[in-house]
Amino acid sequence: MRALTYDRFGGSIIVSDIAEPTPPPRGVVVAVEAAGLCRSDWHGWQGHDADIAAFPHVPGHEFAGRIAALGDGVTGFALGERVTAPFVQACGDCPTCAAGDGQVCPHQRQPGFSDPGCFAERVVVHAAETNLVRLPDAVGVREAAGLGCRVATAFRGVVHRGRVCPGEWLLVIGCGGVGLAAVAIGVAAGARVVAVDVADASRTRARELGAEITLSPAELACAPELTGGGAHVGVDALGSPEALAGSLASLRRRGRHVQIGLLPDATTPVPMGPVIARELDVLGSHGMAASAYAELLAWVADGRLDLGALVAPGEPLTLAEAAAALPRLGNAASRGVVLVDPRR
């Protein structure tokens, strides 16, 4: 089958012919019809993820498609069904999974990182009964391609971890794929959204999705005044020490900071002075378990959240076009979820 591969960190990304996968016990093979091109793929290509240990490597971790093969022991799913899956594939067997927290499963696997990814005609989903999400008729594969990472990650970060409420101020720093999804989800939740990004185009896109105020990073210091004392919830959707510090500085007393963006250094210091003095909550957020997708899909079904609005305009990229686009993700302004069609 055709797939994107690279044979070293930072090396050339090419379209290759590789062996088709076979379904593992309790797993399935999905024929990929749409995949999302995410900045995390760029981080992996740069060598920022220790889970990538074998080459050649196939990137890509957001996808939707149809079940092409069933492994031994899979029940409840059938060939041809339209599905997606979280980028964190939980084991389904451990106490963490039993508690419904598969997004932090200690035995997790991740396509595009620990396993071959979805910038290929087919991809494996392990522990299918734990990780597969059946798509309702109202959700197309193009819209669903961002569910595996960006949209679901933003939903859990804003709704479950940040606990944003109607009328509260939500500050989103970094309007890439996750950040724009957080803006749209915050608006759908009834929050008043402040969106921050260095790029004019990204701020414009945030306004189109319903952000009430948009700021450049240089203007972020104005956020407490503009929000009448500070945001109730701040989200670092970029992943930088400056964004983390800026969010904390922009929160009102007893506000909640949610760290979604991957920080380049695990030892990044957290300014604890304001955290203690203003009793701020600092919360991590890492994807979303498949068992929690029902609530998100209900928002889509009842019209509160338009997944189509989060998809970048234009036709999906071919694999060859994705090979050229992936290295540019480190500094490209976001248009929304950029799609790849691995069949092309």
UniProtKB/TrEMBL annotation:
Enoyl reductase (ER) domain segment(s): 10-340
Keyword Transmembrane helix annotated: yes
Gene3D superfamilies: Medium-chain alcohol dehydrogenases, catalytic domain
Cofactor(s) this protein cannot do without: Zn(2+)
Chain ranges passing through the membrane: 169-195
UniProt-listed PROSITE patterns: ADH_ZINC
SMART domains named in the record: PKS_ER
Keywords: Membrane, Metal-binding, Oxidoreductase, Transmembrane, Transmembrane helix, Zinc
Keyword Transmembrane: yes
InterPro entries listed in its UniProt record: ADH-like_C (IPR013149), ADH-like_N (IPR013154), ADH_Zn_CS (IPR002328), ER (IPR020843), GroES-like_sf (IPR011032), NAD(P)-bd_dom_sf (IPR036291), Zn_alcohol_dh (IPR050129)
Family that this chain belongs to: Belongs to the zinc-containing alcohol dehydrogenase family.
Protein name (record): Alcohol dehydrogenase catalytic domain-containing protein
Organism: Propioniciclava soli
